[in-house]
């Protein structure tokens, strides 16, 4: 029996049974000196375009290093993994350039041991005995407006109609409508209301903005009156 195992005790041991036949049994012992140390170079609140590095390292003793499995949102992480593993220490990092679709992502690293493939019938190993998971805090990504659009987007409108401007942004975007002919701001909301004084051909620009940037979209259209005046106007009913 081996008790009081220390890091320097890792290795291959032979147990001999001395009877009529000499029988050898081998035990392979590996040791983890501590749980994985996992760090991130930023807080969990980041801005589009930031580079986030997540690193995990673990010291071990024995012939087989632990296996590190990187995940995102519970699934396998597909991307470049920086491997800086050296003898008795496994160290891996991943780096991502943050995009809006990373908002809400949870990255994690699972450490476990696979059963060594070179264990023979008369040998044993404690390799399957350990699994550890380290989730990083959920990413909160801030980004400037993008995918700005108008609704409804038509070639003509009548007084009383409204055009709404919207964009993807975090935090939510603020909006202004600008008359491109006069450069005047005609609305400080996401909605432009068509009025009688706009009759004729018009060009407007909607700008969506927050503290991280802005995006714009322009629209050209005609405004027609709701009423067609004809004078004199006679109706003859048979």
Report on this model:
The protein is mostly beta strands. It folds into 2 domains: 32-138, Sandwich (Immunoglobulin-like); 143-223, Immunoglobulins (Immunoglobulin-like, Sandwich). It contains no helices and 21 strands. It has strands spanning 11-18, 22-29, 31-32, 37-40, 45-47, 51-61, 67-72, 75-76, 81-83, 89-97, 107-112, 123-125, 131-135, 140-151, 156-157, 162-170, 174-179, 184-187, 191-193, 200-210, 213-223. Strands 3, 4, 6, 9 and 10 form a 5-stranded antiparallel sheet that branches. A hairpin with a 4-residue loop joins β17 (174-179) and β18 (184-187). The radius of gyration is 34 Å and the shape is rod-shaped.
Task: Give a short summary of the structure.
The protein is an all-beta fold and 238 residues long.
How are the SSEs placed, and which strands pair?
Blueprint: E1 11-18, E2 22-29, E3 31-32, E4 37-40, E5 45-47, E6 51-61, E7 67-72, E8 75-76, E9 81-83, E10 89-97, E11 107-112, E12 123-125, E13 131-135, E14 140-151, E15 156-157, E16 162-170, E17 174-179, E18 184-187, E19 191-193, E20 200-210, E21 213-223
Parallel strand pairs: 2-12, 5-14, 15-21
Antiparallel strand pairs: 1-2, 3-6, 4-6, 6-10, 7-8, 7-11, 9-10, 11-13, 14-16, 16-19, 17-18, 17-20, 20-21
Note the main attributes of this structure.
single chain; 238 residues; mainly beta; Immunoglobulin-like; five-stranded antiparallel sheet; five-stranded mixed sheet; 54% strand; disordered C terminus
């Amino acid at each position: 029996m081996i008790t009081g195992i220390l890091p320097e005790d890792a290795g291959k041991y032979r147990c001999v049974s001395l009877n009529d036949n000499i029988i050898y049994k081998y035990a392979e012992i590996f040791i983890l000196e501590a749980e994985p140390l996992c760090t991130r170079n930023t807080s969990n609140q980041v801005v589009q375009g930031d580079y986030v590095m997540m690193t995990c390292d673990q010291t071990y003793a024995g012939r087989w290093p632990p296996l590190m499995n990187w995940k995102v949102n519970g699934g396998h992480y597909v991307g470049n993994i920086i491997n800086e593993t050296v003898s008795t220490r496994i160290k891996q990092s991943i780096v991502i350039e943050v995009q809006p679709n990373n908002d809400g992502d949870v990255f994690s690293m699972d450490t476990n041991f696979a059963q060594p493939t070179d264990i023979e019938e008369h040998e044993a190993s404690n390799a399957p005995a350990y699994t550890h998971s380290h989730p990083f805090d959920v990413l909160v990504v801030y980004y400037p407006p993008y995918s700005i659009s108008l609704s409804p987007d038509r070639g003509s409108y009548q007084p009383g109609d409204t055009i709404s401007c919207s964009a993807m942004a975090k935090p939510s975007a603020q909006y202004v409508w600008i008359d491109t002919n006069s450069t005047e701001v005609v609305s400080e909301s996401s909605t432009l209301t068509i009025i009688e004084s706009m009759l004729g051909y018009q060009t407007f620009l909607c700008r969506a903005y927050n503290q991280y940037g802005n995006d714009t979209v322009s629209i050209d259209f005609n405004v027609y009156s709701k009423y067609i005046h004809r004078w004199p106007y006679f109706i003859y009913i048979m």
